[in-house]
Amino acid sequence: MRFSHKHLLGIEPLAPHEISMILDLAERYVDLNRGRAKHGDALAGLTQINMFFENSTRTQASFELAGMRLGADVMNMSMQASSIKKGETLIDTALTLNAMHPDLLVVRHPHSGAVDLLAQKVNCAVLNAGDGRHEHPTQALLDALTIRRAKGRLHRLSVAICGDIAHSRVARSNILLLGKMENRVKLIGPPTLMPAGIAEFGVEVYQDMAEGLQDVDVVMMLRLQKERMDGGFIPSEREYYHRFGLDAQKLAHAKPDAIVMHPGPMNRGVEIDGTIADDINRSVIQEQVEMGVAVRMAAMDILARNLRATPQEVLA
């Protein structure tokens, strides 16, 4: 089976077998990354440009490391000091980059749809590293790989996504991916942090942690994205933690072998108790970070294969 997309802009266009294709290849890169020789040549001779219009630690470092381990020439552009700040439009920036003939463009942008717009203006493969409240596909894929490795499967599980659903592109991408793979998805959070019309995504919505966490296999906590809030979405952080922060008492409602996830960065004592976050028997938060490099290696590898394919192979 072939991967039929030039870009990786979101989970929404992907078929279940394409999700599995990325995860299966990522498994091989997990093994590579754990070995002594951590280098491959899937991106040898290719140029990767990372454009991050928003600050990021995990995602940018993960993409940079993934490209370097696969042999790409990797360049990080400092968008905070770029011509965008001097008034250049996003389209002009895209045209300028296109003239440099990159092969892979990794973009993180604060506005939904900006990465898709860039992809329409360049000749290279574009990977969405997060755009506004829209999508963060590689985060959902690394979460999926983490779940699959911990649970032995990625279907017919009960998964609770808790917290700031309204502002989270991570939540949206995970809802799409988990739904495509036939999982039961529960969303838990205050009404002020729940997007309108969310039930249309085929999810269950809860405002009580004890009720929502009942017998779930996976507990996925989300960061309170205060930088995207323009009003009083929560009474206080202390009250939020009391009602929606994950602690041992709330986690007890999940299955005894339920795993705990968080995309990071964590606000300890706000979204999650530090003891739970560090519990090696329940928390897979560090595994998520490790899977991020492998998944991004796999995603770029698969897109690079399409770049190198002949017209006959593309039509096959």
Task: Describe it.
- The longest helix has 24 residues, at 285-308.
- The protein is α/β, with parallel strands linked by helices and 316 residues long.
- The strands form 2 sheets. A 5-stranded parallel beta sheet has the order 7-6-5-8-9. The protein has a 4-stranded parallel beta sheet with strand order 2-1-3-4, with helices on both faces.
- The chain has 12 helices and 9 strands.
- The chain is 39% helix and 14% strand.
- Strand 5, helix 6 (169-180) and strand 6 (184-188) form a beta-alpha-beta unit.
Write out key terms for the chains shown:
single chain; 316 residues; 5-stranded parallel beta sheet; 4-stranded parallel beta sheet; globular
Mean pLDDT: 91
Low-confidence regions = none
Q: Using DSSP, what is the number of strands?
A: 9
| Oligomer kind | single chain
Ends apart, CA distance between termini: 10 Å
Our estimate of the beta-strand percent is 5-15%
- How many strands, what sense, and barrel or not for the largest sheet? 5 strands, parallel
Tally of DSSP helical segments: 12
What is the radius of gyration?
A: 20 Å
> SSE string, helix = H, strand = E?
HEHEHEHEHEHEEHEHHEHHH
The side-by-side strand order for the widest beta sheet comes to: 7-6-5-8-9
Helix/strand-derived category reads alpha/beta
Q: Could you say which overall geometry the principal axes of the C-alpha atoms support?
A: globular
Give the helix proportion (percent range): 25-40%
